[in-house]
What does this fold into?
Amino acid sequence: MENAIDQAATGTKRLAGKTILVTGAASGIGKSVATRFAGEGARVIFSDRDEVGAISAAHEVPGAFALTLDVSDEDSVRTAFAEIADRGLSIDVVVANAGVQLFGQDSKIADLDLDTWEKTIRVNLTGTFLTVKHSVRAMLNHGGSIILTGSPTGLNGEGADFTAYSASKAGIHGLTRTVAAAYAGQGIRVNTVVPGYTETALVSTISEDAQMRAAIVSRIPLGRPGTPADVEGIMVFLASDEAAYATGSLFRVDGGMTTL
It folds into this structure.
């Protein structure tokens, strides 16, 4: 990936003047997208429960700053939005990206422990709910764009062995439609981006197992795994004014995986 300075020099500035919060921005898709946003002219807030990681990621990007944010804790979410307001900033775009996938614990439902279910739902679905709730409150007077991160596991049988994760992502897809319909009149757009199998630290259990990785890649018509950079373009579009008529939708960036 280009470094932040190179991106700032070569970006199209489609997001100039916008203030954007990205959760789960210490690494992976979140970091990649947040850095691209900065290259497109936005003021970006890198948030993550990994304080050191968020600070490190933000340090690479001119004008960005980091917030420690645990999306599963409403007090943490509320405090983060209050801090943004205290800085005199008005949020234009929020990417609710933070999530977990508990490999080795999540499983088919007959073998799934309640604790694993609750941990996954608390971060992925409740965490997205809390992020969206406070994003909407921050945008009621001026509108904005909220982008959620979904998954093919919430759409088809890709997640048969990951009951909790699949259910959490299906819930996120439903939340998109509900919130989009409820707040369209206030100029708040809500959409979900559905990345396919994207190789980040989150899925190292798969990427480091040659047989498992090959099995997944064989189900991708484009014939390769995704990278965080593959998700940047659609996120920029949805964050920009070019997407003014897009709301309540799922945008698949999965190499064709969900066409099968």
Q: What stands out?
A: The two ends are 30 Å apart (CA to CA). The longest strand covers residues 188-195. The beta strands are 19-23, 43-48, 65-68, 93-96, 144-149, 188-195, 250-253. The chain has one domain: 4-255.
